[in-house]
Queue: 2 jobs
Job 1
Amino acid sequence: MPNFQTVRGMRDLLADEAGTLNFVISKARETAELYGYREVITPVVEPYELLSAKAGEEIRSRMFVFKDLGNRTVALRPEFTASIARLATGALKNEPKPLRMLAVGSVYRYDEPQRGRYREFYQSNYEIMGASNPEADAEIILLTDSLMRSVGLHNYAFKIGHVGIIRGILGQENVDEKTQSAVLQLMDKKEHNKALELIESEPCRVALKGLLDIKTDSVHETIEATKRQVENYGDAASAVQNLQEILTLVAERGCPVATVEPTFARGLEYYTGMIFEVYIPEVEVALGGGGRYDRLVEVFGGEQTPAIGVAHGLDRIVMAIQTQKTPPNKCEKMKVAVVPVKTIMKGRALGIAQLLRTAGISAELEVMGRKINKALEDADRRQMDFAVIVGEREIEQGCVVVRDLAKREQCEVPISDLPKILSSRS
Ligand code: AMP
């Protein structure tokens, strides 16, 4: 037999890690509810054209693309925003605005696998459509803050920028959109010199160089220095103004903004306004990121719809929880082993297990036919709380034996009282 392994970059998540991932997903859903985002479920496989329309070269080149049996060119989703924008132009076109949506699930990118970078990973993705005000930008940052807090992370901080600053400068000097996007992609990869080489206009290069040279840890000083650099560029100046307003809104709510970078760019091409990422000091890669994209819905044939969204990398949040050693308060349920003393009692034992499950108590039936001592040893090893021993003599009297596995004590209990007694001990 061949030694089957997972495909490179894809992982099996064993119970502990899957448990932590599900804990993070439950917190992502709770956060969505608190902020009024309703969950939608979209397909993993989408038309290649939809996913590639505005994702940017970086992500386009890393998509899992293939022909289905009907000869359609399709791809595994590398992100959720395109699917959500499709909903906004179709099924939800006439819904009153703002539209607040959550999508959670796996996404696929042919990235180079390394710690925190996989080819199949999980995201929680929040989008708010129809709102152009800075309160909406602030909301997306604040809900990310809430999620980080609710999973127990500490010392996380935001890095914030605004693509309108670079686009504003380049646009005023008539640099075409394609070159603008290429410059932003290079900025994202921190290839600043290559980015500057793409720009023919001298004043533009000088302005961009000036922004790259701003070196201060103070958010306030960065904003003031950026304002001075862009004072001759109307759109870029408005972008800084907008960024400052958003920063004030989030800072007043106690949200930790560590850095503002006027030349910060992100891989996705569709951003038009504020962009951000969230980090913890112990992990180099971002735990989540997002931004404003006011033209995407239009690109997909919808009405002009301002929009903003964020995607959280759930695998990286799991990694951050493990790194910061913040045990997730998973609130483990009590576990009970149900063990028949003899094989002939198996039907009765099954009935007892069903009785417990109906009462909401987790019950595992002994299905290996082991002797009582072996079954109890196994229950102990798996850190179960109680064993319910189903013996012939006790059953005749309408009873079972309940054994507290930690205390190594046991007593007889009437079956009718069993769920109540076990629940009271949890
Ligand atoms: P993006 O959709 O590129 O804005 O990414 C949003 C978040 O997804 C990032 O901040 C990461 O936390 C996470 N992420 C992106 N790429 C990967 C990957 N290859 N593996 C694991 N997480 C990723």
Job 2
Amino acid sequence: MKKMIALFPGSFDPYTIGHYSIVERALPLFDKIVIAVGVNRNKQSLMSEEKRVEAIRSLYENNEKIEVISYDGLTVDVAKKYGARYLLRGVRQVADFEYERNLAEVNRNISGLETILLYTLPEYGHISSSIVRELASYGKDVTDLLPPGMKIPKKQE
Ligand code: ADP
């Protein structure tokens, strides 16, 4: 049987406890999850792409089911390159749902890739990278919003 590989694409600037929770819950569903850090030229970033990849890799260094990569370009092309037949995404509220629905539709149309959506746990529904970025830029402690053991720079780089 073909391996069940999922690509979890995102900006992950930074990778939050919400993202972490989605991956933890998706792990039993797949043989492998490739976390793909996308380069977004339109967003001002808190952490460089290399730092994001490094921080996420160190979280999962003992987990051989997870690979962390960075990419620039179309998500479906990266999925193909890594043998992923599924895209993993998370949904918090209605706005996410609408957005994810369009994205899933486009990705399925252009490549046949199916998107697997997991609803957030209620306790993480309010957490977004942009809120973490904003708090961190004012020097606030964001430890509780990040995966256990992860650290990010307090001020903009
Ligand atoms: P993008 O810029 O591609 O939306 P993000 O890094 O913001 O990338 O998010 C990646 C995925 O994780 C998206 O599907 C997003 O909806 C989901 N996500 C973000 N925050 C949470 C959270 N707190 N709970 C569940 N899913 C989340």
